[in-house]
């Protein structure tokens, strides 16, 4: 499975943000999108998700594909615990024990029954990552998912994502070249 992004152009208030952006996304290799702040990385993810309309260009290969995302702002239900948050997006039933194991794999111990609003930013981010991995989608889009994690944790969580996302199209926005290297990703640079 591959997704072709061809000549995507997007203007905001007559200012071009994406200019004839072309790239191919493959399931064999994670794709990292890099580029300066304001170069349109989030906008491109939003276009892939159908949340923002491109002005011109086309995207091939998205038909009937299920997409899950880790947004910059996590988008979890704060009044629910992490396990319930994860179960909410899973199409197939996944048992509590399995989810607990996945949370433990990203260093989240003993938080499963806490309301998400009581977790730290880095903890919420990891819950959102596990949710995206377990959601049984074809495509995973992540917007700076490892931001705010300390070095050791970041290393572990990147390995978790690499291990668990095999066979899916994965696109990760990052500002960190080291992250892209550890992900063994194909790099695309957007310019502002
Ligand atoms: N809904 C919107 N209306 C108007 N302008 C917008 C809108 N969304 C984004 N922009 C502008 O488009 C440009 C690209 O924004 P975008 O968030 O895609 O950049 P980015 O590369 O993801 O930035 P960062 O690395 O800071 O997250 C910015 O100048 C931003 O202000």
TrEMBL record:
Q: Which SMART domains match?
A: AAA (SM00382)
Alphabetized Gene3D superfamilies for the sequence: P-loop containing nucleotide triphosphate hydrolases
Q: Which GO terms describe its molecular function?
A: ATP binding; ATP hydrolysis activity
**Transmembrane feature ranges:** none
InterPro entries recorded for this chain? AAA+_ATPase, ABC_transporter-like_ATP-bd, ABC_transporter-like_CS, Molybdenum_import_ModC, P-loop_NTPase
Q: Which PROSITE patterns match?
A: ABC_TRANSPORTER_1, ABC_TRANSPORTER_2
Which branch of life, at top level? Bacteria
Which protein is depicted? Answer: Sulfate transporter
Q: Which organism is it from?
A: Anaerocolumna cellulosilytica
